[in-house]
Amino acid sequence: MSLKANDPSRQTWLDLPDNTDFPIQNIPFGVFLTRDDIITIGTRIGDYAIDLGALHQLGYFKDIPLTDDIFLQDSLNDFIADGRKTWRAVRNRVAELFDVKNDELKSNTKDKETILFTLNEIEMQMPVQVGDYTDFYSSKEHATNVGKMFRDPDNALLPNWLHAPIGYHGRSSSIVPSGIPIHRPQGQKLPKGSDEPIFGPTRHLDFELEMAFITTASNVLGEPIPAAEAENYIFGMVLFNDWSARDLQKWEYQPLGPFLGKNFGCSISPWIVTLDALEPFRVEGPSPVKKLLPYLETIGKKSFDISLSVSIQPDKGEETTITKSNFKYMYWNMSQQLAHHTVNGCPVNSGDLMASGTISGPTPESYGSMLELSWNGSKPIKLKGGQERRFIEDNDTVILRGYCQNYEVRIGFGEVSTKILPIFKS
Ligand code: CA
């Protein structure tokens, strides 16, 4: 099915703000609470949220085989499970309905009132019920920086890193959408020069600038997904902040890897941008340093040029952008990650979420965590207004943003914004 929704010349009859992340060529998917307290699946054009459940009830999707309640759900899991053909048909139809040349909905004031919401009338929810969450570690720059700090500067990358996309299984219960605050976690940590741990609030609270992809049901137990087919099973992407407590992490991570230093919270942007919408922004990723085993070989442009940034806004203070990176720096692409994840026969389900790992670029201004930006606290970052940060303080808000842009169109992810609250007190 053609990607008619991507036509860069298409214009909409809705008013669009300048430089919007959500032109008619984007058509992301999300879940929101309406002004009438109803949960629905929707999309967004400019600063309007569109109720797809109501559009379907009004008969605007009658030519697409969809169950009656496909959009009247509190998650996208069932819609995603319908597969790529359905996602494409719905995106194409939404593009057609909001096209400036189409009067069908534009001229129906009553229907427009039913399906259109301004952003302050709605509350975004988690777009999917995440069954399983995996976090990869796929930026060579990030893995090298962390290896230099925590292990051996001369052998920063472990020997397996260049041969396989390293990852670990995370915890889906603490993944929250943008706007939900997170408490500073407490735990065990080892004071400098001591042999015995103490218990207390993390002093090294950090963000990780990542993106994540969301899958459809992909395989059965035992069945690997070939790298060449992996993209068929990727619905779309979100911005992903993998909150980390570095002092807890450092004490606990050997021998089994990340645990309580990681699983207290992850924050995602609420609109899932489809892989289809990102099609014009394909690029080749870095060339492999080592010859890859055949199951990890991919052909063609499997990465995406997505500009990323992170800002810190202190309580009542001004926002400062502290880093700018790009998804295209990732050494391992999503097809390789999914092929590796399933090569042993591990099943992947609709609504599973796979995060990229911290996306650090080649220069210090493009590092994707405070750990790297402040080089483990040794080089404080200056904020507007004079404050400094080595790690994240209570009541700081951390905002990740991402977008793709060429001469014709801008496709963005909006933002994921999270305020850090002091430790939880019952
Ligand atoms: Ca991570």
Automatic annotation (TrEMBL):
EC class: hydrolase
Q: What Pfam families does the record tag this protein with?
A: FAA_hydrolase, FAA_hydrolase_N
UniProt domain Fumarylacetoacetase N-terminal: residue ranges: 25-127
Q: Which cofactor does it need?
A: Ca(2+); Mg(2+)
Q: Which UniProt keywords apply?
A: Calcium, Hydrolase, Magnesium, Metal-binding, Phenylalanine catabolism, Tyrosine catabolism
From the UniProt annotation, give the residues forming the signal peptide.
none
User: EC number(s) on record?
Assistant: 3.7.1.2
Query: Which InterPro entries does this UniProt record tie to the protein?
Result: Fumarylacetoacetase, Fumarylacetoacetase-like_C, Fumarylacetoacetase_C_sf, Fumarylacetoacetase_N, Fumarylacetoacetase_N_sf
PANTHER family recorded:
FUMARYLACETOACETASE
Q: What is this protein called?
A: fumarylacetoacetase
Q: Which organism is it from?
A: Psychroflexus lacisalsi
Q: Which gene encodes it?
A: fahA
